[in-house]
Amino acid sequence: MPLVFLLIVVFALAVALFALQNAAPVRVSFLVWESKEAPLAAVILISVAAGVVLVSLIGFVQRWKLRTRIRQLESQLRSGEPIPPRCE
Q1: Angstrom distance (rounded) from CA 13 to CA 15
Q2: Contact 35, 28 (CB under 8 A)
């Protein structure tokens, strides 16, 4: 686990340095929304933050499903029910 945290810190530092070195104003448009001038650093940081939130939500949903399945299997073990094989 410490290696994961080290990789996260290295990635965050790389993104921060990249954003700081690219501070020029840029035009951003998305669907009907448009920004005349936004700092490129802000666009980069907001994009990375949105990606982190999205990936975290996906991971949370997967973890929730796995914990639900574990609780179900534990209750079946306690009650002595046979556990059917699961093909996935």
Answers
A1: 5
A2: yes
What is the sign, positive or negative, of the torsion defined by CA atoms of 48, 49, 50, 54? positive
**Rounded to an integer, what distance in angstroms lies between the CA atom of residue 30 and that of residue 40?**
15
pTM of the model: 0.63
Residue at token pair 């574990």: 70
- Count Cβ atoms within 10 A of the Cβ of residue 42 and give its class: 0-12 exposed, 13-18 middle, 19 or more buried: middle
Express each pLDDT in 31-49 by its tens digit: 888 888 888 888 888 888 8
Q: Give CA separation, 70 vs 64, 65, 66, 78, in Å.
A: 10, 9, 6, 12
